[in-house]
Amino acid sequence: MTYTADFGAISATFHPGAEAEQAVTGPGTIGRFVAPGSVTQGRFGLYEFRMAAGSGRADPHFHRTFSESFYVLSGTMRLYDGGRWIDASAGDFLHVPEGGVHGFRNDSDAAAAMLILFAPGAPRETYFRELADISSSGRVLSDEEWTDLFARHDQYRAP
Fold first, then answer.
1. CA angle 92, 97, 98 (to 5 degrees)
2. Would the CA dihedral through 52, 73, 30, 16 be positive or negative?
3. Is 115 within a domain?
4. Closest to 130 in 3D by CA, of 116, 150, 144, 114
5. What is the secondary structure of 55-87 as a DSSP string?
6. Domain count of the chain?
7. pLDDT 10s digits, 87-129
8. What domain range is 137 assigned to?
9. Whether the Cβ atoms of residue 92 and residue 78 lie closer than 8 Å to each other
10. What strands, in cross-sheet order, belong to the sheet with 85-89?
11. Could you tell me which of 54, 47, 61, 106 has the C-alpha nearest to residue 79?
12. Domain for residue 1, yes or no?
């Protein structure tokens, strides 16, 4: 039990959607920081990603300190569950516990959108900002630089 008082508290915080930070993490991919860990007391982080046709991807990888869940809002996303790529459509959900190999991409010829939930609320916005900086600058990272970037953000490549 995390709350022990005998009465409810007035403690909710409202965050207008129009004020949520956005980052273009790659060509045709916009991430919106709906509820990062910094506003949820580190309990979870919720991000919305909108991807143009044939854009947006995360190759198979895993995390050691947080789980990741995907909820498809629209279009068709290819989600990797560690063993196979699945065509997921609106309403489909994939949960990946810590250590679970996963990935995603929009291979379709239509736009797609999904919510990504991290628990606990790892500061993923720092990672997404770095991706946005790399994308906007046109910088090309070496394999070693990608490995370093991923490791700084608890992301490890999987075969």
1. 145
2. positive
3. yes
4. 150
5. --EEEEEE-SS-EEEEEEEESEEEEE-SS-EEE
6. 1
7. 999 999 999 999 999 999 999 999 999 999 999 999 999 999 9
8. 20-157
9. no
10. 85-89, 76-80, 102-105, 57-62, 156-157
11. 106
12. no
